[in-house]
Design brief:
- The chain is α+β, with helices and mostly antiparallel strands.
- Helix content is about 15%, strand content about 30%.
- It is built from two helices and eight strands, in the order E-E-E-E-H-E-E-E-H-E.
- The chain has helices at about 55-65, 135-145, and strands at about 10-20, 25-30, 40-45, 45-50, 75-85, 95-100, 115-125, 150.
- Strands 1, 2, 3, 4, 5, 6, 7 and 8 form an eight-stranded mixed β-sheet that branches.
- Strand 1 (about 10-20) and strand 2 form a beta hairpin.
- The protein is globular, with a radius of gyration of 15 Å.
Length: about 160
């Protein structure tokens, strides 16, 4: 057995664009004062995959844990992959798989008030420009029907594909 390539590992996370298509709005969380990064900024419901957990299950779990909404893995649509060069929890950066959910059960609540200041529906065309990168871009490209690899923190040489 080869030793794990720990220095090259990146954090795996899942995010969900919850899209109320009828009203063209998305569900965002505002990071609270105890957040590990980006305090006060808006973000998609997002979180780390646990060891041995499929990324679809991580998306479902994180969405429920943060907002109380329930979605089945087969109802998720893959829309983007975000590759960040840096992470507060992993020296090798992070990879976030972004899904969209257009159906769910439940009403959104701030299910993690120790982490988030609030959970709110935001008009999809009005995601704050200062939201956690690349939330605004991910929502805009999703609405345009684009599926992309979005790169953050790689400098001017890197572009979204």
């Amino acid at each position: 057995m080869l030793p794990p390539a720990v220095d090259s590992l990146c954090l795996l996370a899942a995010a969900v664009i919850v899209h109320d298509a009828e009203r063209d709005r998305v569900l965002l969380v505002q990071r609270g004062p105890n957040a590990k990064f980006a305090r006060g900024r808006w973000d998609l419901p997002v979180g780390k995959a646990e060891p041995g957990e499929p990324v679809t299950e991580a998306a479902v779990r994180e969405l429920r844990e943060e907002t109380g909404l329930v979605v089945r893995p087969e109802e998720l649509t893959l829309v983007h992959v975000v590759h960040g060069s840096r992470s507060v929890e992993a020296a090798g950066g992070y990879l976030t798989v972004v899904f969209a959910a257009r159906t769910w059960t439940g009403e959104p609540v701030n299910a993690e008030p120790e982490k988030h200041a609030r959970v709110s529906w935001i008009p999809a065309a009005e995601v704050p420009a200062d939201a956690v990168e690349p939330t605004a871009e991910a929502v805009a490209r999703y609405r345009a029907g684009e599926h992309r690899v979005l790169l953050t923190g790689w400098g001017s040489a890197a572009t979204a594909r």
